[in-house]
Amino acid sequence: METKEKIKSLDSENLGALIFENRKNNAYIQNILENLGRLPQNFDGNWLLELLDNDSSSIRFLAVKNLGKLKNEAFLIFLTKIAKTDPDTNVRREAVSAIGRMRKPDTKKILFEKLKDPDPKVVCQAIRGLLVFKGEETVDEKLKSLADHQNEMVQQVIRKEYFTRCLKEKAQAHSESFDYLKNVVVNGDTIEVMKLLQDESIHLTFTSPPYYNARDYSIYPSYKSYLEFLRDVFQEVYRITKEGRFLLLNTSPIIVPRVSRAHSSKRYPIPFDIHHYLVEIGWEFIDDIVWEKPEASVKNRIGGFQQHRKPLGYKPNAVTEYVMVYRKQTEKLLDWNIHQYNDEIVKESKVPDGFETTNVWNIDPCFDNVHSAVFPYELCKRVIQYYSYKNDLVFDPFGGSGTVGKTAKSLGRYFFLTEKDIKYFLYIKDKIDIELVANFPSRFLSLDEFKAGIK
User: Fold this and answer.
1) Is the dihedral of CA 306, 307, 313, 318 positive or negative?
2) Over the stretch 187-205, which tens digit does the pLDDT of each residue have?
3) Looking at the structure, do residues 190 and 319 belong to the same domain, yes or no?
4) Within a domain: 167
5) In sequence order, which ranges of 117-222 are alpha helices (DSSP H)?
6) Residue 454 belongs to what H/E stretch?
7) Which of 116, 135, 162 finishes a domain?
8) What pTM was estimated for this model as a whole?
């Protein structure tokens, strides 16, 4: 194999001669093509044309990629043929990209045709090439018609370019939150409370919704009504979440016990069933984190099988829960969110060494005499550190035992919790001290008191 330095030192004629001499050695040819680097505009790429019929799709792809660097209209007819007929979608995509980079009016007709390609990534490359001519009536008409394209990636590009709404002026800076929400726990129905909040009031939501009919504090008439209740909750959470910020939802499949030995228990896959509701609302799925607990800490389901070992009777011990990560949709990149903070806050919020590098988090669960489903401090700590900045407002619509609030406070964030059950509201009040944090003491309010304090 030739070295990268030697390949870059050779002119077009010598490179062509090497390719011809080794025309049956695809590995050799691929090495040459991968190491060409930048090509001068006077580079003679005619020897690359011979590689467009190579049996290897990798060779054809690299040949097209290097032809694209030249932006030479003389190669347009060859690239057009590849874009139309090559059986490999990656090669077609690269050909369309090369055509678009020419930025020539003659390419518009070809790119219009590729808007019908079955590969949405090819379509996106064609859109990219046509956006050079944005503002021309024919081009705008063709591209706007893709707003109803069957592929969501194509839809997103077109919406951003042509249908982005002018958002109303925000009531506050992105990094700020309203004082009347800071370090507050409200005893009331979470949807009722959220309806009192302005759009884009909070930075981060971390919560674990009530189990479906698996605890004495969460009774719903049906599983469907339970999911629809959660949908309504997270619809409001979406509205009050700041642009591009995160929702982390801790759920797991649950078992509703059987009525008698003559009946079966029922297992409900809550994380998977709630997901499509969240996506329909507008939440963008980002990651799935698996919270793994020690086997000794969970209910033993495998005992019967250990005795009889009969197929079909296998029931593994459930040692995991899901922490699903969602982001409020935005046309802005993640860096935009980060740049809303000053350098001092960014530095102070830097995640310390020892952070988790995988999506499997091994954390011991917590047990509590008052609340039967308590967040571990370590779980809250990671979520708040990884997905918020100092002085951000962290929300938990199902306040429970108040761990999210207490952890947020300990990490220099503000908290806002809602809790409907008076027993747990009073428990949170006992658990979270009222010491001053940046001049905002913890406050525990009824719904009416909260309404009266809204400014």
Assistant:
1) negative
2) 999 999 999 999 999 999 9
3) yes
4) no
5) 120-130, 137-144, 152-162, 190-194
6) none
7) 162
8) 0.71
